[in-house]
């Protein structure tokens, strides 16, 4: 599904290398987790894959089902099936959540040459999916993320994911700022989307999210590279011993 | 040459050959008085403080600059609204195109008919609020309008007026120079909605005087047409009584020169007065100026000024807004926001927000900002698959939303929003 080879990325404005030759392959239908200490480049990886400005790829490649991601505009990546759940979802005053969702869904359908969803079909689908995530009618009417609590913002991200049904979902520290109940709700939303044709890359500091979203593969990232890859037990090792042991072992 | 001499020469040049329309004695006196005030004040020049950001020369020139007639080729605004339609072509009332001037809860007449009557309520309003509005800042172009206005309507709402009254201003002659003056008197507890749209003329001066009695409600939504070359100056003078409501919204699209002045006076307790506007301008020759002056002279008044301007390709936007809270006008709640979205580096926004407060128990806030499209929000939308231009347009519309929200009737707001969307889409 997602194949990253030797990816090197620096900040556009300053001479600072963040990703230093990152290799990662996420197979179709699998859930991979990336853990790592602060500053290891986890969020940068998610931004570079989704096409945010401000980064310069100096070497390497990233492909989604064989298509060169790095050559595409952010909206093209989305239409190709990539989705990033933001660590800090953006507030957009003046744009209703529903309008936003419908614009996004139809823009992607249009880009893929599919027919736009009718207002009725869209409404039916969004209501059903919002209900599962305990998102009420009021949240759907309000401007995008404006006045939402941390938990509401993250649930709103998962609602977008559910409506857009991407192939490759990247979750950037989706657990940050969530209490236990909210995390469970978000994780249930993600688990409901797990399927044979859909892959996940879950970026997190902590093991606890991975109790709810069980990964197939866990990677440890440090200083711009994947330094260790293993099964779910690797996350438990981090939880029990911290990163220092692992980092010492691989250095 | 001294400024005074320059001014009086320019004023006389404008007044050469001008004859005042004739009517009843009171109206002739009102016009003569207005003309005398124009001579005494002199027409504005760019050296006047109040015209520092807007050059009035095209508005004061003896001859109106030509403006090509623009055919938008789309359904006229408010066409689907169940309303009482009154049409002016280049500033002249069009009987055939207009509905009959009757409606439930309202009396409507042509200005000329009212001004010809020896006894008429219009006497208490015509030029009266305009004259009051000349202090503390002079507005000579408004006095000139009072002197010269050849047409218009006078509206007296005596109850809840069932249908909005819709003034349609068509522009068909590229040299037309129109002066219209409208009066609205909202009696105690009455309610009326006034819609206006269209460019009116190559050069247009519009004056609206509105008296809202206690418990009355006046709702005003206006759009100034899409003609690119028109020059427009409008004045709205309003006086609002206790527990009354005044709401005015203006949409300005295109036009090389627009100056919209609004002068509001809250004279009764617990009244609200909202003035809002959106303008979208593209190109070096676009110049748009909102000048607002709100006076609180009663208890517990609420006023809002909400102005949003979207500017690109060298377009210029101006905002001069003032809240004056008089001594004793306690518990006043005044809010003023003027913001511009500059879509490129060539556009400019000039703002002069002012507060002058003589009461000690008031809440007044004001803010003014200029900014570009929020890149973070743009990326967020694009990451969800919304193409860049659509995302920019969506964010531009969202920037204007706070002002559009000032329109009380959601269907009218939606109609204006659609037009703005069209304007943006044509430029994507």
Automatic annotation (TrEMBL), chain A:
Highest rank taxon of the organism: Bacteria
SMART domains with a match to the protein in the record: AAA (SM00382)
A matching Pfam family: ABC_tran
Record keywords: ATP-binding, Nucleotide-binding
CDD domains assigned: ABC_FeS_Assembly
Keyword ATP-binding set for record: yes
Domain ABC transporter: 2-248
Record InterPro entries: AAA+_ATPase (IPR003593), ABC_transporter-like_ATP-bd (IPR003439), ABC_transporter-like_CS (IPR017871), FeS-cluster_ATPase_SufC (IPR010230), P-loop_NTPase (IPR027417)
A molecular-function term among this protein's GO annotations: ATP hydrolysis activity
Matching PROSITE patterns: ABC_TRANSPORTER_1, ABC_TRANSPORTER_2
Stretches assigned to coiled coil: none
UniProt similarity note: Belongs to the ABC transporter superfamily. Ycf16 family.
Name of the featured protein: Fe-S cluster assembly ATP-binding protein
Organism: Yoonia maritima
Automatic annotation (TrEMBL), chain B:
Species assigned in the record: Yoonia maritima
Alphabetized InterPro entries for the sequence: Fe-S_cluster_assembly_SufBD, SUF_FeS_clus_asmbl_SufBD_core, SUF_FeS_clus_asmbl_SufBD_sf, SufBD_N
Record domain SUF system FeS cluster assembly SufBD N-terminal: where: 27-156
Family of the protein in this entry: Belongs to the iron-sulfur cluster assembly SufBD family.
Top-level taxonomic group: Bacteria
Protein name: Fe-S cluster assembly protein SufD
Residues annotated as signal peptide: none
Biological process annotations from GO: iron-sulfur cluster assembly
Start and end residues of each SUF system FeS cluster assembly SufBD core domain: 176-399
């Amino acid at each position: 599904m997602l194949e990253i080879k030797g990816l090197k990325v620096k900040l556009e404005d300053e001479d600072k290398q963040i990703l230093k030759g990152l290799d990662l392959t996420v197979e179709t239908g699998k859930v991979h987790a990336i853990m790592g200490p602060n500053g290891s480049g986890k969020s940068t990886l998610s931004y570079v894959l989704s096409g945010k400005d401000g980064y310069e790829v100096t070497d390497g490649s990233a492909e989604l089902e064989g298509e060169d991601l790095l050559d595409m505009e952010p909206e093209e990546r989305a239409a190709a099936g990539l989705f990033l759940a933001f660590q800090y979802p953006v507030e957009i005053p003046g744009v209703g959540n529903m309008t936003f969702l419908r614009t996004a869904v139809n823009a992607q359908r249009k880009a893929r040459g599919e027919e736009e969803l009718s207002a009725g079909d869209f409404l039916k689908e969004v209501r059903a999916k919002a209900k599962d995530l305990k998102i009420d009618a009021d949240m759907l009417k309000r401007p995008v993320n404006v006045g939402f609590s941390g938990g509401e913002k993250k649930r709103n991200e998962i609602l977008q994911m559910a409506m857009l049904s991407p192939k490759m979902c990247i979750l950037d520290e989706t657990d940050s700022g969530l209490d236990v109940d909210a995390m469970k709700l978000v994780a249930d939303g993600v688990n409901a989307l797990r399927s044979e044709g859909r892959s996940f890359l879950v970026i997190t500091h902590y093991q606890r999210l991975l109790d709810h979203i069980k990964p197939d593969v866990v990677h440890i990232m440090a200083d711009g590279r994947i330094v260790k890859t293993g099964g779910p037990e690797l996350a438990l090792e981090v939880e029990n011993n911290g990163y220092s042991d692992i980092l010492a072992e691989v250095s | 040459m001294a400024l005074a001499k320059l001014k009086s020469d320019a004023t006389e040049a404008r007044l050469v050959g001008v004859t005042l329309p004739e009517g009843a004695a009171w109206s002739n006196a009102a016009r003569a008085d207005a003309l005398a005030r124009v001579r005494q004040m002199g027409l504005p020049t760019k050296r006047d403080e109040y015209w520092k950001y807007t050059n009035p020369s095209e508005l004061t020139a003896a001859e109106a600059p030509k403006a090509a007639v623009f055919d938008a080729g789309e359904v006229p605004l408010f066409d689907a609204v169940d309303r009482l339609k009154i049409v002016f072509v280049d500033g002249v009332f069009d009987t055939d195109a207009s509905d009959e001037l009757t409606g439930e809860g309202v009396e409507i007449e042509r200005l000329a008919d009212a001004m010809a009557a020896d006894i008429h309520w219009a006497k208490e309003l015509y030029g009266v609020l305009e004259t009051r509005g000349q202090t503390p800042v002079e507005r000579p172009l408004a006095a000139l309008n009072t002197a010269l206005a050849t047409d218009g309507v006078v509206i007296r709402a005596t109850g809840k007026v069932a249908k909005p009254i819709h003034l349609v201003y068509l522009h068909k002659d590229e040299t037309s120079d129109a002066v219209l003056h409208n009066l609205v008197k909202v009696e105690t507890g009455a309610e009326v909605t006034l819609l206006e749209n269209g460019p009116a003329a190559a050069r247009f001066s519009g004056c609206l005087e509105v008296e809202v009695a206690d418990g009355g409600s006046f709702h005003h939504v206006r759009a100034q047409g899409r003609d690119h070359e028109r020059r427009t100056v409008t004045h709205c003078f309003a006086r609002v009584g206790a527990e009354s409501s005044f709401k005015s919204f203006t949409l300005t699209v295109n036009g090389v020169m627009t100056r919209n002045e609004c002068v509001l006076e809250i004279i009764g307790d617990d009244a609200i007065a909202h003035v809002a506007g959106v303008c979208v301008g593209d190109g070096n020759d676009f110049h748009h100026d909102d000048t607002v002056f709100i006076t609180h002279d009663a208890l517990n008044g609420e006023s809002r000024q909400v102005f949003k301007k979207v500017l690109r390709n060298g377009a210029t936007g101006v905002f001069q807004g003032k809240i004056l809270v008089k001594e004793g006008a306690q518990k006043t709640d005044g809010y003023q926001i003027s913001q511009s979205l500059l879509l490129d580096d060539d556009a400019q926004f000039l703002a002069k927000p002012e507060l002058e407060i003589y009461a000690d128990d008031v809440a007044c806030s004001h803010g003014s900002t200029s900014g570009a499209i929020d890149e973070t929000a743009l990326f967020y939308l694009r990451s969800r698959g919304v193409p860049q231009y659509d995302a920019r347009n969506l964010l531009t519309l969202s920037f204007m939303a706070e002002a559009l929200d000032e329109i009380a009737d959601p269907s009218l707001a939606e109609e204006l929003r659609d037009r703005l969307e069209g304007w943006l889409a044509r430029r994507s």
